[in-house]
């Protein structure tokens, strides 16, 4: 095959394309063929690089064709990319030729073209085996000539300059020993800086900055070179890049990081950087807050990165700058930055030793002592001005190390204790207590950082702080006593609050003392706890005194579970018993006190513990330490319930206790994620909340073999029953059972459950209620879910208030399919969920007179879960067909039933419709929605039924606590669009009935109202753009105005007024033409007098006035004078309304009308 020629390459020239990422050309297919042919010819000895270069010279020396020059050099680059074995002589020839070409001493116009290709060629040559590193000097020398007086380098494109920097960086790093030997570091640094003198492009600086950082760190540069380098890069600080937000942010962050590396790359730069930053900060009035913050951040980084000796040399200068920023600055961000720097300086001074330990001690001690002395003097001389700011400084320094803390404490604390005896002003006493809190917090932070054992922590405590233990505890205790005295005063609450604020830091400090091991004696701990509890129970519940006392007790409990178990909880329970004993007459206010105290116990106890118990953890715990307090709280309150059961008059307290348990469980389980508690338990045989689950169930339900008067079945088998109250014979109330059910719901859906360790799965397979099982004939006991899976469903319907909720919240198995097949198998309801739903529906229809509304709604929730979570509509029923077929048969057979039966049936259908739309069940949605729409037909049903059915439409898209992701139900967002499509026939029926009303045909007005009520139940949850896809704006406005007149449904009327408000706000051009009718309709709502009362409730009247105000603001200039007069008259009537909210809205509307420009 004949070898291709250079001329063929030149003839095949196409559009040049280079990848910005790897600097590699993308060649066309023809170019690849030619390059391969010439490369093979060189390998086979048919030609040489020198001959090829001679052939190329007629093109690369032609100054009239600059593109031709680049194309010819591109061929040489393509060949060098394809061959590796080239002699050293030929490489030298090529390098020498192109080095002279770059130098261009004769100012040849052709030599300034194709520089990018030459630079890439140098880069490729440096990677070849035959490349002699000594050639690096020739290449670098030629590149440096680009930065001559003609500024050729400055005029190059960004891409070419970027390639030049890349090649320079490569040789500076790989062959630095040769370059430094041939040129010396001064010439190399000067050459680099000449190239980068005018550089502003981010992509280029991202190469220059790391190179400067490298040579500053690894080259032995002299002072002049380092000063030149610092001057070259410090001018870029702080980095500011314009352009696209995301891209500029990325570049700014990347360049800032590289520039920071430059500044800290050599300790010598500290002598330049610190004076530079100090000088700028001494007058930062003209700087932006962002720039000032960046300077502080840079100083902090320098302190952390420079050597300890360098930081020691500049520590005094930095302190003299920073202290005035903290003392005098009004910018909190600046103060925070300065405190961080001070802490970093202190940490740096102690992080390693000088060559002599004494020097280290002298430097560190001198710095910390100087700060402590100056802060002490400021606090003593002018406490009102400098106490708090100096306190923050000493906290920052003291929290850096134990040694620093001892120095600060020894210097500061004696003066503070002496100062406290002379202070009379409440504000000064508060600031002094706050400073003490800063000191204690610093010590606790040091203990937490070291993650020490109890013995180690006790050793650490035997420092400077121990010397002042007596005075410190006395001072804080006296403050708490004073705080308690204020809480018992009979002065107005406002005065109490102001006085109490002064002592809040004392409460916080005492809580910190509990976190210091063995600092307080047990007697002192007990006294402090008693004082705090008295503050808690005697102070007003909604005041700052109560809040701070509660906060202190909570912090003590979280960090010292032993104190909580031995002191806090028993004392609070004693207070609770005292209130109950006193509450013999059950006055409302006293019952409220009991509820409030229970809430306080919940807020204190129901948080994960942050410290291990010294005595180990109790039997039955599921993890090392984090739920001690909660377990104890639950155990004691469950015991209280048993006590309350013994007295009929105390049953209300049992219910209040379950409320507290529910609230506590909500708080505790909700905080597990934030405290990073693992879901895995230490003992896989122990289930999450097992004790709580089993005990609360035993207090609610029991096993029964004897059918009573409440039974609806002749079955003789065992079943779940409501527990009877001991010695009274009465059953537990629904409210109690409902609360227990909600407790089981939270436990069942807790993230602590796993597929292998799930409490619901266990108790759906074995009996929980073992107290009445005397033999083993019951197949390991009665299954918890017998009530909801067996044909004789609901022997005692009220049991469903408890038994259904575990199924609602159960967590599906991790590897289950979307229909939860494996989960249903595990629960024992696979392929039977449809039958469960059918039996439940039949029971609901048969028992409508025997169950109350709360029980009925709970069972309806169960139906929803079967459809939305367990997809029971797919199951084949025992008698054949699907659940949908069964529902349709019920509807067909209902024509001869009573209205009450039909209303209950449609209630069931409404809940089923909601569930089917939530899970986007395509087989169920359309049919059940059609059935629900049929319930609106006034020719088939009476007006009450139509109205009830219409009102049920608002359930379909309403937020549900059952159909939610918390219960592992995937609520599909697509349902809105599909539902809106299905709603089109309702619009048609509404228009039809509207025409009949205008023709005065019969009593069709009720039918029209039913469709209006149904439509707004759906439209209220739709976004306006989505609505306008199925109905025109004109029709929507007319429908909305008609809806504001709907009768006997204030909710629907209010929603239509809200929709009208949205239309006026978002579609003013389409609503302005209806302004007269809008005003008329709203006036009909707002006019409320004895002679002509309004048909709207308070909410509707207020909403109508808001619409009128919006009309005035949007269209005030177009209102006719007579309309303004009529508005003013009606607003005057509204300002005399019996409700204050309406009067206020009318007044605002009147002001808007007055300020309309004429």
Describe this structure in words.
It is found in: Nucleus. This is MMS19 nucleotide excision repair protein. It is a single chain. The chain has 1158 residues and is mainly α. The chain has a two-stranded antiparallel sheet with strand order 1-2. It is globular and about 110 Å long.
In a nutshell, what does this entry contain?
The protein has 1158 residues and is mainly α.
Kindly report the average pLDDT value: 82
Tally of helical segments: 57
In order across it, which strands form the biggest sheet? 1-2
Low-confidence stretches: 354-360, 613-618, 620-624, 707-713, 766-789
Query: How many individual β-strands?
Result: 2
SS content category:
mainly alpha
Assembly state (oligomeric): single chain
Q: What does the overall shape look like?
A: globular
Strand fraction equals: under 5%
Distance linking N and C termini:
94 Å
Rg measurement, Å: 42 Å
Instruction: Report helical residue fraction.
Output: 55-70%
Q: Biggest sheet: strands, sense, closure?
A: 2 strands, antiparallel
Keywords: DNA damage, DNA repair, Nucleus
GO biological process, one term: iron-sulfur cluster assembly
Organism: Golovinomyces cichoracearum
Family: Belongs to the MET18/MMS19 family.
């Amino acid at each position: 095959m004949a070898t291709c020629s250079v001329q063929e390459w030149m003839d095949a020239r196409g559009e040049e394309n280079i990848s910005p990422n790897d600097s590699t050309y993308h060649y066309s297919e023809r170019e690849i063929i030619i390059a391969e042919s010439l490369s093979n010819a060189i390998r086979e000895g048919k030609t040489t690089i020198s001959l090829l270069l001679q052939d190329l010279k007629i093109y690369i020396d032609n100054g009239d064709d600059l593109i031709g020059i680049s194309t010819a050099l591109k061929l040489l680059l393509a060949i060098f990319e394809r061959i590796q074995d080239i002699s050293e002589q030929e490489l030298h020839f090529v390098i020498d030729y192109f080095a002279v070409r770059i130098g261009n001493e004769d100012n040849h116009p052709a030599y300034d073209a194709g520089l990018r290709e030459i630079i890439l060629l140098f880069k490729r040559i440096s990677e070849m085996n035959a490349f002699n590193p000594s050639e690096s000097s020739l290449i670098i020398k030629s590149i440096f000539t680009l930065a001559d007086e003609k500024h050729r380098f400055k005029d190059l494109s960004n891409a070419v300059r970027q390639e030049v920097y890349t090649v320079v960086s490569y040789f500076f790093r790989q062959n630095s020993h040769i370059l430094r030997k041939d040129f010396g570091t001064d010439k190399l640094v000067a050459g680099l800086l000449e190239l980068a003198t005018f550089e502003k492009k981010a992509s280029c600086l991202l190469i220059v900055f790391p190179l400067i950082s490298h040579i500053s760190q690894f080259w032995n540069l002299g002072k002049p070179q380092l000063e030149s380098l610092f001057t070259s890069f410090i001018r870029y600080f702080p980095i500011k890049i314009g352009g696209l937000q995301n891209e500029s942010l990325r570049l700014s962050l990347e360049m800032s990081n590289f520039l920071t590396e430059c500044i800290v790359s050599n300790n010598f730069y500290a002598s330049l950087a610190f004076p530079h930053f100090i000088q700028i900060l001494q007058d930062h009035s003209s700087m932006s807050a962002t720039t000032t913050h960046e300077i502080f951040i840079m100083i902090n980084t320098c302190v952390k990165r420079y050597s300890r000796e360098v930081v020691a040399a500049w520590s005094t200068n930095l302190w003299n700058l920073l202290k005035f920023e903290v003392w005098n600055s009004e910018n909190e961000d600046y103060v925070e930055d300065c405190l961080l720097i001070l802490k970093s300086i202190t940490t740096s001074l102690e992080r390693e030793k000088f060559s002599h330990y004494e020097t280290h001690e002298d430097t560190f001690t001198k710095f910390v002592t100087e700060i402590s002395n100056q802060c002490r003097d400021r606090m003593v001389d002018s406490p009102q001005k400098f106490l708090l700011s100096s306190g923050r400084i000493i906290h920052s320094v003291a929290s850096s190390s134990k040694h620093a803390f001892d120095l600060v404490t020894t210097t500061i604390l004696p003066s503070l204790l002496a100062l406290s005896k002379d202070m009379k002003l409440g504000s000064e006493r508060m600031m002094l207590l706050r400073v003490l809190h800063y000191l204690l917090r610093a010590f606790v932070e040091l203990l937490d950082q070291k993650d020490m054992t109890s013995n180690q922590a006790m050793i650490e405590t035997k420092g400077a702080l121990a010397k002042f233990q007596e005075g410190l505890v006395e001072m804080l205790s006296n403050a708490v006593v004073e705080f308690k005295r204020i809480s018992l005063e009979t002065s107005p609450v406002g005065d109490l609050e102001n006085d109490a604020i002064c002592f809040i830091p004392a409460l916080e400090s005492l809580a910190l003392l509990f976190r210091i091991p063995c600092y307080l004696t047990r007697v002192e701990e007990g006294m402090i706890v008693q004082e705090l509890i008295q503050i808690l129970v005697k102070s007003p519940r909604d005041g700052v005194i109560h809040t701070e006392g509660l906060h202190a007790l909570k912090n003590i409990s979280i960090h010292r579970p032993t104190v909580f178990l031995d002191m806090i909880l028993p004392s609070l329970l004693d207070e609770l018993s005292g209130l109950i004993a006193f509450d013999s007459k059950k006055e409302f206010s006293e019952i409220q006190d009991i509820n409030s105290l229970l809430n306080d116990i919940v807020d204190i106890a129901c948080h994960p513990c942050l410290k291990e118990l010294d005595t180990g953890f109790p039997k039955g715990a599921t993890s090392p330490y984090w739920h001690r307090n909660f377990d104890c709280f639950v155990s004691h309150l469950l015991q209280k319930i048993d006590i309350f059961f013994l007295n009929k008059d105390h049953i209300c307290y049992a219910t209040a206790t379950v409320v507290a348990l529910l609230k506590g469980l909500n708080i505790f389980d909700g905080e597990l994620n934030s405290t990073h508690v693992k879901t895995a338990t230490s003992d896989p045989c122990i289930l999450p909340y097992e004790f709580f689950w089993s005990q609360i169930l035993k207090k609610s339900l029991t096993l029964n073999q004897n059918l009573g008067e409440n039974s609806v079945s002749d079955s003789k088998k065992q079943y779940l029953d409501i527990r009877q109250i001991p010695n009274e014979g009465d059953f537990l109330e629904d409210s109690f059972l409902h609360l227990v059910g909600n407790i089981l719901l939270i436990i069942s859906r807790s993230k602590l459950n796993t597929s292998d360790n799930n409490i619901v799965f266990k108790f759906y397979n074995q009996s929980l209620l073992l107290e009445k099982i005397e033999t083993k004939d019951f197949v390991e006991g009665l299954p918890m879910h017998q009530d909801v899976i067996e044909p004789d469903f609901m022997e005692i319907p009220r049991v469903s208030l408890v038994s259904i909720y575990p199924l609602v919240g159960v967590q599906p198995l991790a590897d289950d399919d979307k229909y939860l097949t494996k989960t249903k198998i595990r629960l024992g309801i696979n392929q039977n969920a449809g039958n469960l739903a059918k039996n439940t529906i039949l029971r609901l229809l048969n028992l409508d007179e025997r169950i109350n509304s709360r029980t009925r709604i709970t069972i309806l929730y169960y139906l929803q879960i079967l459809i939305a979570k367990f997809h029971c509509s797919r199951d084949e029923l025992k008698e054949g067909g699907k659940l949908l077929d069964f529902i349709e048969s019920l509807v067909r057979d209902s024509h001869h039933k009573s209205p009450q039966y039909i209303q209950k049936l449609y209630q069931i259908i409404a809940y089923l419709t909601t569930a089917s739309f939530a899970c986007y069940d395509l087989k169920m949605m359309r049919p059940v929605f059609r059935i629900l729409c049929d319930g609106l037909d006034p020719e088939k049903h009476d007006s009450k039924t139509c109205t009830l059915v219409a009102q049920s439409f608002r359930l379909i898209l309403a937020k549900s606590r059952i159909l939610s992701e918390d219960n592992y139900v995937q609520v599909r967002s697509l349902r809105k669009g599909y539902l809106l499509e299905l709603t089109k026939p309702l619009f048609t029926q509404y228009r039809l009935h509207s025409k009949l009303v205008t023709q005065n045909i019969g009593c069709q007005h009720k039918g029209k109202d039913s469709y209006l009520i149904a439509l707004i139940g759906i439209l209220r949850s739709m976004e306006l753009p989505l609505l306008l896809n199925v109905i025109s704006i004109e029709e929507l406005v007319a429908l909305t105005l008609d809806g504001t007149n709907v009768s006997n449904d204030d909710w629907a009327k209010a929603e239509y007024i809200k929709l009208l408000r949205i239309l006026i706000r978002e579609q003013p051009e389409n609503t302005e033409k209806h302004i007269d009718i809008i005003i008329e309709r709203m006036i009909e709502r707002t006019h409320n007098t004895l002679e002509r009362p309004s048909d709207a409730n308070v909410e509707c009247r207020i909403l109508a006035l808001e619409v009128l105000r919006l009309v005035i603001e949007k269209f005030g200039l177009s209102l006719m004078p007579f309309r303004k007069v009529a508005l003013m008259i009606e607003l005057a009537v509204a300002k005399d309304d019996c409700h204050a909210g309406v009067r206020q809205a009318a007044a605002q509307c009147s002001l808007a009308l007055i300020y309309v420009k004429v």
